[in-house]
User: Which sequence fits this backbone?
């Protein structure tokens, strides 16, 4: 036996792929535009983070004309059986009323306005009340039947 060639053999693999199934080439102009856009965004973020705060402030006041709201009232009629006589003498009392305005405009409650509570007790205001528009601190925990009606 004779050795003719002592070089190792190599195996080559040949794959045949149709032209329409070849991998797509990278779209270099689109990649360039995306990189350029990201660089612009980073530059704007850097400028806004390290730029100085404005030196001047602008303040102004807006005056809106308020209007008087018509009083709303409810009347209930019922028949009951009387079991006797009773009388409660009228009394004079003073106190404070707190109004909350949940609307975006000022409301005016004129002096002498009669307010009746859920328990039937009526009070009269002594002077005019000007209630500014709604604020973030206006409580919302009162249910409608617990509020004073006019």
Assistant:
């Amino acid at each position: 036996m004779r050795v003719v060639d002592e070089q190792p053999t190599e195996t080559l693999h040949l794959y045949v792929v149709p032209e329409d199934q070849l991998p797509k080439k990278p779209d270099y102009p689109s990649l360039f535009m995306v990189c350029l856009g990201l660089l612009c965004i980073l530059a704007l973020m850097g400028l806004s983070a390290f730029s100085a705060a404005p030196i001047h402030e602008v303040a102004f006041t807006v005056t809106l004309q308020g209007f008087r709201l018509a009083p709303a009232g409810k009347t209930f009629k019922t028949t009951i059986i009387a079991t006797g006589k009773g009388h409660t003498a009228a009394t004079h009392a003073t106190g404070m009323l707190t109004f909350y305005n949940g609307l975006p405009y000022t409301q005016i409650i004129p002096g002498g306005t009669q307010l009746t509570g859920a328990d039937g007790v009526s009070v009269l205001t002594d002077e005019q009340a000007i209630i500014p528009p709604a604020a973030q601190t206006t409580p919302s925990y009162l249910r409608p039947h617990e509020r004073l009606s006019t």
